[in-house]
Design a protein that fits this description.
Distance between the termini of chain B: 33 Å
CATH topology of the largest domain in chain A: Rossmann fold
Strand content of chain A: 25-35%
Distance between the termini of chain A: 50 Å
Oligomer: heterodimer
Shape of chain B: elongated
Order of helices and strands of chain B: HHEHEHEEHHHHHHHHH
Radius of gyration of chain B: 29 Å
CATH class of the largest domain in chain A: Alpha Beta
CATH architecture of the largest domain in chain A: 3-Layer(aba) Sandwich
Largest sheet of chain B: 4 strands, mixed
Number of strands of chain A: 13
Largest interface: A-B, 30 and 26 residues
Strand order of the largest sheet of chain B: 2-1-3-4
CATH superfamily of the largest domain in chain A: P-loop containing nucleotide triphosphate hydrolases
Helix content of chain A: 25-40%
Number of helices of chain B: 13
Structural class of chain A: alpha/beta
Chain lengths: ~325, ~350
C-alpha cells in the first residue's frame, strides 16, 4: 500500500455537472485535508448535494477530477466503499426492523468495523436498540443514519444535511457526536444550510452558490473579511426611506444596504456608530419602527456576497 | 450482542433474514400469501362439492282429464319430481328455471315437450321423461343393460382447483413480494444508501430469491396439505417432480417481479404494472376453469403464458401423476420465462 498520509482526504478539480436545463455544479475545486471537517455551506439548490454525491461515487460528473483517499471512482470502488461512511439526505430505513437489526445488516457489508452494539451506544441509541425504526423520532432516525455511516469505521465521512428538520436539542446532540468522530482524527465533508452548524463543526467552510464557490476559509476568516464585527438592522415607521449617503459617513460603518424596507449596516465599533446613527435619523426626521443588532455570522458573509439570505423564510 | 461472527454475519444471511422479518412483520402480507389461498380453496371447494345426483323437475299441464294419469305414471320414475299446473303457471316456471321441462298432452293423444335445448338440465329432463313415458307405454329395449357407478377422486372440481390456486399463489407471491419490496426501497432511497456501502448487488437480489424459496415450503405445504386433509385431493405424482415444478415456477415469477420493479419509482406505478401483467394470466391461464374453453385462435398466446405452463404442469403431476417426461414441455416454457426476465431485469435494474 502506498503511503497516503501526505495527501488530502478528498481532492476535487474543475467539477461540472448539468441536468437537462440546469447547471448544478459549475467548475468547483475543493480540498479536504486529513483530520479536517470541511463544510459546504449554501442555500437549497446551490449544488451541494450533487457535489457530495459525485464525491461519494453515487453520481457521475460531466467534467472534472475527483480523488478520494488517493483513489478514483470507477477503478477502486469496492476498496473505497470499505473506507467511506455515508449519510444521505432523507434515507428512510425499513420501519419494520429494529435499530439493532438495521445496524447489524450494515455491519455485515464491511470487512472491518466496530460491533453493532458499540456503534449504537456511540450514537446514544442504546435504549432504543430493540425498538422498531418506525417508532423513532426524527433525531433518533438521524442518529441511526449516523450509526450506519460509522459502522465500517470509515476514514472519511460524508454527511449530507445531517440535521435538517431537527429540533435544536436533537441538532446539538448530533453535533456532539460528529465532534467526537472528528476528534478521533477522521475527516468529514458535510453540507448544510445552517450557519450555526458550519461555525460550530467546520474547520474550513466553502460557501457555494449556483454551483460555484464564492468564498473559502475558516469561519473566523470569512467573518473577519467582512471587516465588521457587528450587523445593525433597522426599519422605519410607514416603511419610510432615508438618505443612505450620510449613513455611510458615520464613523465605524463599513457598508449599508436596503432590502425589503430593512436597512443593514455592517459596523466595526457599535458603541460609537449607534449614537451617531440615532442622531442622523433624528436629523432626517425619520421614525424608527425596529432596531436590532447581532455579532456578524456566516449568514452575514453570505448576504454580503450575494445580497440574499441562506434560507428564504 | 446476540451472535458474533460466523455465517450468521454473512451479508447474504443478514439480507435474507431482513426479507423474512419484513415479511412476517407485515400481517397483511402473511394473510394474502398463506391464508387467502386456503380460504379460497375452502370456499370454492364447498360451493362446488359433488352432491347426490340432482332431481329432475318437470311440470305437466293440466289441460286434459288424462293429464293426472300422465303425471302419476311419471312419478313412478326415480329422480323425477312432477307437478301438475295450469298452462300459464307451467310456462312461467319454465321461464324462471324452476322446472326443466313442461309436458303438454296433444290432441292426437301424443305428448309435446317444451324446453330450452341450451340448458343441460333440460336436455337431461327430456331424455329421462321420454324414456319413462315410452317404457310405461310398453317399449321393450333390445340391448340388455347393467349399471355400475364409479366415483373417482381426482375428477372433482376441487381436484382441478387446488393445483390452479397453487400456481396462482406462486405467481402472486413472486411478483408482489419482490416487486413491492424493491420499489418501496427505491422510493425511500434505501437502495441508493445500500449501494453506498460495499454490499454486493447480486447478493441483494439473491436474498429475494432465497427468501422466496424458503417461504415456498410453507406456502405449498399449507395449500396442498389443506386440500389433501380436508377435501382428499390426491397427490398422485412424484414429490420430486412437484418440488422441481414449484421451485422453477417460483424462480420464474420472482424474476418477473424483479423485471417489473427494475425501474418503477412509485408504488402506484408498480401496482398498475403488476396487475397489467397478472390480469391476462388470471383470466386465460386456466386457474378456475380449463384454458381450452377459449377459442382456438387464442391458444398459442394462452399456452405461452407462464402461469398456463405452471398450472398445466402442476395438474399433470398432482392429478394425473405425470413424470419428468410428461411435464418437460411446460418446464421448458417456465425456464424460458425465467431466463428472459432475469437477464432483462439485471440489465434494466436501477439502483436509484
Amino acid at each position: 500500500m502506498q503511503s497516503t498520509s501526505g495527501q488530502p482526504a478528498l481532492e476535487v478539480r474543475g467539477l461540472r455537472k448539468a441536468y437537462q436545463d440546469v447547471v448544478a455544479v459549475d467548475g468547483l475545486d475543493l480540498e479536504v485535508f486529513r483530520g479536517e471537517c470541511f463544510g459546504l455551506l449554501g442555500p437549497n439548490g446551490a449544488g451541494k448535494t450533487t457535489t457530495i454525491e459525485i464525491c461519494e461515487g453515487l453520481n457521475t460528473p460531466d467534467a472534472g477530477d475527483v480523488t478520494v483517499l488517493g483513489r478514483r471512482w470507477g477503478k477502486d470502488d469496492r476498496e473505497l466503499r470499505e473506507r467511506l461512511g455515508i449519510s444521505l439526505q432523507e434515507t428512510q430505513f425499513s420501519e419494520k426492523l429494529t435499530v439493532e437489526e438495521t445496524v447489524r445488516l450494515f455491519r455485515s457489508f464491511y470487512r472491518a468495523g466496530a460491533s453493532p452494539q458499540a456503534v449504537i451506544d456511540m450514537v446514544q441509541l442504546g435504549e432504543k436498540a430493540h425498538s422498531r425504526v418506525g417508532s423513532l423520532s426524527g433525531g433518533q432516525k438521524q442518529r441511526l443514519a449516523l450509526a450506519c455511516a460509522l459502522v465500517g469505521d470509515p476514514e472519511l465521512l460524508f454527511l449530507d444535511e445531517p440535521t435538517t428538520g431537527l429540533d435544536p436539542q436533537s441538532r446539538r446532540q448530533l453535533w456532539g457526536l460528529i465532534e467526537g468522530f472528528k476528534s478521533a482524527g477522521r475527516s468529514i465533508l458535510l453540507t448544510t444550510h445552517y450557519m450555526e452548524e458550519a461555525e460550530r463543526l467546520c474547520d474550513r467552510v466553502a460557501i457555494v452558490d449556483h454551483g460555484r464557490m464564492i468564498a473559502l476559509g475558516t469561519p473566523r476568516e470569512l467573518i473577519s473579511a467582512l471587516r465588521a464585527e457587528h450587523v445593525l438592522e433597522f426599519a422605519l415607521a410607514d416603511n419610510a426611506a432615508v438618505d443612505e449617503a450620510p449613513l455611510l459617513s458615520i464613523e465605524g460603518v463599513c457598508a449599508a444596504a436596503r432590502q425589503n424596507g430593512t436597512y443593514r449596516l455592517q459596523v466595526e465599533e457599535l458603541h460609537r456608530a449607534m449614537p451617531a446613527l440615532l442622531g442622523e435619523l433624528r436629523r432626517q426626521g425619520a421614525q424608527l419602527a425596529e432596531l436590532r443588532t447581532h455579532s456578524a455570522t456566516l449568514e452575514d458573509v453570505f448576504v454580503s456576497l450575494t445580497g440574499r439570505h441562506l434560507r428564504d423564510e | 450482542m446476540s451472535e458474533t461472527g460466523g455465517w450468521a454475519e454473512h451479508p447474504l444471511v443478514q439480507l435474507t433474514r431482513v426479507r423474512y422479518r419484513e415479511f412476517f412483520r407485515e400481517p397483511e402480507a402473511v394473510f394474502w400469501v398463506f391464508i387467502f389461498p386456503v380460504l379460497l380453496a375452502a370456499g370454492l371447494g364447498i360451493a362446488f362439492r359433488n352432491r347426490a345426483p340432482e332431481r329432475t323437475v318437470v311440470a305437466v299441464v293440466a289441460n286434459d282429464s288424462t293429464a293426472r294419469g300422465l303425471a302419476e305414471a311419471l312419478r313412478r320414475t326415480q329422480g323425477l319430481d312432477v307437478s301438475l299446473s295450469s298452462e300459464s303457471a307451467a310456462a312461467e316456471a319454465l321461464r324462471t328455471g324452476e322446472v326443466s321441462l313442461v309436458l303438454v298432452r296433444a290432441r292426437n293423444g301424443g305428448v309435446e315437450y317444451r324446453y330450452d335445448d341450451t340448458r343441460p338440465e333440460s336436455r337431461v329432463a327430456r331424455l329421462v321423461v321420454d324414456d319413462a313415458l315410452q317404457r310405461s307405454a310398453g317399449r321393450r329395449d333390445p340391448v340388455a343393460l347393467r349399471e355400475r357407478l364409479v366415483h373417482e377422486r381426482g375428477s372433482r372440481y376441487i381436484d382441478f382447483l387446488v393445483p390452479g390456486l397453487l400456481g396462482m399463489n406462486l405467481m402472486g407471491s413472486g411478483i408482489w413480494g419482490v416487486g413491492f419490496a424493491i420499489v418501496d426501497a427505491r422510493k425511500k432511497r434505501l437502495l441508493k444508501r445500500l449501494i453506498a456501502t460495499p454490499m454486493s448487488r447480486p447478493q441483494y437480489l439473491a436474498s429475494f430469491v432465497l427468501s422466496r424459496l424458503t417461504l415456498l415450503v410453507i406456502e405449498v405445504g399449507l395449500l396442498l396439505g389443506f386440500g389433501a386433509l380436508v377435501f382428499g385431493v390426491p397427490l398422485r405424482g412424484s414429490l420430486l417432480v412437484l418440488v422441481a415444478i414449484c421451485v422453477l415456477s417460483s424462480l420464474a415469477f420472482t424474476s418477473l417481479g424483479l423485471l417489473v420493479s427494475s425501474r418503477v419509482q412509485t408504488m402506484e406505478g408498480a401496482s398498475g404494472l403488476m396487475n397489467l401483467i397478472m390480469l391476462p394470466m388470471w383470466i386465460f391461464s386456466g386457474v378456475f376453469f380449463a384454458a381450452s374453453r377459449f377459442p382456438e385462435s387464442l391458444q398459442p398466446f394462452i399456452q405461452a403464458l407462464p402461469l398456463t405452463a405452471v398450472v398445466d404442469a402442476l395438474r399433470a403431476n398432482i392429478i394425473r401423476g405425470a413424470g419428468w417426461h410428461a411435464v418437460a414441455p411446460e418446464m421448458a416454457i417456465i425456464l424460458a420465462w425465467l431466463a428472459a426476465s432475469f437477464v432483462l431485469a439485471v440489465r434494466m435494474f436501477r439502483w436509484r
